[in-house]
């Protein structure tokens, strides 16, 4: 089967084949194309015009027509990059109507800057061609899986919260001089549990847990939430409680206002232990729960903190009374959580704790039990707020207020210094 090759001849070769060669502008001869066919019978040459194009082959993928003699040797489509199959070459050769063995050679005597002829072993187009497009995989859609780093994990929960609410001497007609004194010293210990590897085994029991608490605890603080335990991620369970009355020594007689407000009788405080003994018994109770050591410091390996409904219980009342009576403040009282702080109740529920403690307990769906302004009753009901906050996702991780190494509340030194400076400035101004 004959195969055509395009060769450009010089004007001198054209003069040999044609008697009157064609000339262009300024008399310059126009070269012509000669088609030379090498067959077994001999060599035949056909001359073609320079502007004439012959169809070489058509891509079977994008149907792009490769025209021109230079493109008949392309092994891939210049439009889509699809490799030119051998069947395409056979189809093009068979269109000439001859199946004989042929050899082709170029008879051009002029050196041309034609691209080198490609062979069947030529490399394919790069993978960016259309023919290499593939549908995206699920990994391409989801992306690489990110490993959770330690810094991305939330801070760990405290192990325990000790909820307390003191009651102290008061009078609606005059200020208690020199200082108010604590008359009731209660606390409730709440154990915080988290569902990292499942809640504790006893949490799935429908019976209330048995504790060694000398004071009975309400069921809504000890009974597991069986109905919601599947979706529950964390919880707070009461494990023990403490309560004792304290005998005031600076103002031993209670006022009518204090007895009506707290329901504490004169007989209850008169027969009670003074502050130093009551505090010692309280520390023994914390030590029995392995929360403090014999020196009153928090034990290592266990994280816990006091929780109060305001800063007045520890920062003002307890600290000032022990300081006045020259009783050492235990080290464990240097940090506490104020549940009314902006980062606690208001942040979690999106509202201010208005209406008093009872209104706030009922606002979270808990049931108020007992008489208000009793220290133990207030502590137990405050613990219900703590449990609801934990169950609804709040994480108790750190204290909100504390004392420095000198026993002074954080920020109070600067406040006192500013007050003294303002007083000196005002006095100097008045003298002038």
UniProtKB/TrEMBL annotation:
Residues 1-33, 88-150, 405-432 are annotated as: Disordered. Residues 160-395 form the Exonuclease domain. Keywords: Exonuclease, Hydrolase, Nuclease. Signal peptide: none annotated. CDD domains: ERI-1_3'hExo_like. PANTHER family: 3'-5' EXONUCLEASE ERI1-RELATED, 3'-5' EXORIBONUCLEASE 1-RELATED. This is ERI1 exoribonuclease 2. It comes from Seminavis robusta.
């Amino acid at each position: 089967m004959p195969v055509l090759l395009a060769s450009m001849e010089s004007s001198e070769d054209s003069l040999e084949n044609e008697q009157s060669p064609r000339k262009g502008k300024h008399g310059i001869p126009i070269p012509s194309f000669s088609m030379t066919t090498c067959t077994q019978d001999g060599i035949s040459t056909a001359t073609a015009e320079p502007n004439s194009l012959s169809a070489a082959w058509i891509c079977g993928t994008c149907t792009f027509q490769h025209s021109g003699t230079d493109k008949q040797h392309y092994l891939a489509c210049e439009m889509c990059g699809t490799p030119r199959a051998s069947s395409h070459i056979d189809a093009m050769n068979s269109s000439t109507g001859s199946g004989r063995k042929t050899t082709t050679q170029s008879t051009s005597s002029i050196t041309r800057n034609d691209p080198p002829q490609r062979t069947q072993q030529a490399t394919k187009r790069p993978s960016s061609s259309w023919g290499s497009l593939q549908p995206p995989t699920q990994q391409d859609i989801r992306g690489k899986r990110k490993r959770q780093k330690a810094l991305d994990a939330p801070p760990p929960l405290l192990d325990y919260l000790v909820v307390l609410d003191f009651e102290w001497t008061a009078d609606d007609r005059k200020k208690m001089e020199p200082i108010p004194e604590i008359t009731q010293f209660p606390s409730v210990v709440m154990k915080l549990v988290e569902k990292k590897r499942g809640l504790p085994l006893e949490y799935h029991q429908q019976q209330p847990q048995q504790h060694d608490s000398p004071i009975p605890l309400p069921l809504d603080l000890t009974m597991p939430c069986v109905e919601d335990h599947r979706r529950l991620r964390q919880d707070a369970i009461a494990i023990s409680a403490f309560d004792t009355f304290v005998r005031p020594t600076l103002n031993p007689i209670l006022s009518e206002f204090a007895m009506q407000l707290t329901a504490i009788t004169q007989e209850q405080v008169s027969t009670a232990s003074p502050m130093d003994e009551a505090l010692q018994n309280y520390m023994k109770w914390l030590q029995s729960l392995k929360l403090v050591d014999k020196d009153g410091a928090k034990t290592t390996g266990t994280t816990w903190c006091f929780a109060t409904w305001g800063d007045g219980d520890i920062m003002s009342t307890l600290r000032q009374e022990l300081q006045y009576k020259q009783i050492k403040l235990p080290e464990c009282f240097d940090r506490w959580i104020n549940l009314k702080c902006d980062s606690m109740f208001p942040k979690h529920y999106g509202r201010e704790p208005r209406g008093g403690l009872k209104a706030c307990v009922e606002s979270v769906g808990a049931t108020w039990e007992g008489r208000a302004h009793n220290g133990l009753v207030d502590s137990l009901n405050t613990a219900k707020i703590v449990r609801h906050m934990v169950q609804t996702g709040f994480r108790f991780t750190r204290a909100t207020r504390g004392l420095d190494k000198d026993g002074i509340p954080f920020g109070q030194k600067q406040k006192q210094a500013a007050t003294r400076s303002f007083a000196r400035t005002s006095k100097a101004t008045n003298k002038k």
